[in-house]
Structure formats: structure tokens, C-alpha cells
Design goal:
The chain is an all-alpha fold. It is built from eight helices and no strands. Helix 3 runs parallel beside helix 5 and helix 4 packs antiparallel against helix 5. The radius of gyration is 18 Å and the shape is globular. The protein starts with 15 loop residues before the first helix and ends with a helix.
Length: 196
Amino acid sequence: MLKGKCAYCKQPIAWRYPLIELFTGLLTVFIVFYFGASLQALAALVFTWCLIALTFIDFEHQLLPDTISLPLLWLGLLINISGLFTDLTSAVIGATAGYLSLWIIAKLFELITGKVGMGNGDFKLLALLGAWLGWQILPLIVLLSSFIGAIVGINLMLFKKHGRNVPIPFGPYLAIAGWLGLIFLNKLPQIYSWLI
């Protein structure tokens, strides 16, 4: 009815907005079917919606806003008081280990190369994933996000003439790996046994 234009300013609406809304709707339906009518499903929906927002903000602005990341981190700790996705000890260790592991890697990279290799938002994102899912899943998230990021980065350099010095946001790949971690959290022992 609006012919692809904003009702107020009459500017064209970018194609990505309806696609993001469709994608969010599909993941919402998937979460509800996967977790059923439960508190887990409600929490997983909030987790999913926030990760989608963080992913697309980071792609566009190379920024992971604290206004989304930090409340999501605290919410992860709060919901795990009752052990919704993991026990509270695992959640606290996950938040701490998530932040510190990337912070240490980034500081070592900066010390060796003199360049900033990763933003603070990535530390907070991995911390919130640890708070929601526990420390046990962090190695898998880092491994999977690095793999996805490497594939995308190589393809960008090969096909889009993306320079090696042009930064590529890491947050979207952490978010994708974290969301997959939520879905496969109960299969974690089998995944690790398969990897080993």
C-alpha cells in the first residue's frame, strides 16, 4: 500500500528491513516450536531478537551497543539463577571467561602488532553468551564463529575486492554461533565427543 516508501518522509524503505522482519518471524516460529510453550521459549525469543539486532547493527555500523549487550548479559545471569539454560555457577564463569578470553587475545594482538584487532563489544557479546549458555559452550562458540568469519572474510576478499586492512565485524559470527549454541546446548556432550 505504501509502495515501498515511508508513510511519513516518503523515502524508499530499504529491502533489508522487510527481509530482517521475515527472518525474525521465521526464527520466532522456530523457537516456539522447538521449546514449546514455556519460560525457556520466552527467554529464547528475547535472546534471539537481541542477537538479530546486534548482528545487523554490527554489520552496518561495526558497533555492538551496550544498551542491548549489557542488559542481555544481566538477564542471562538472572534467568540462570533457576537454571533455565545452565546452572548459575556455569553462567557466572561463562560471563567472566567469555569477556576475559577475547580481551586477552585482543591485548596480545595489540601488543604484538600495534594494531587494534577487536572491539570491546565483542568481549561483552561473548560474555553474555557465556552468561546465557555457560562456560562449557564457549570454546565451541569461538571455534564456530572463527570458522564462519574466516569463510566470509576470504570470500569478501576474493569476490568483492575487500582489502585486508578493511575491518570485518566479528560480532555477527559470534551471534550466529551463540544462537546455534542455544539450539544445540543439550547436545553439547555428543558434539564434544565427536570433535575429540
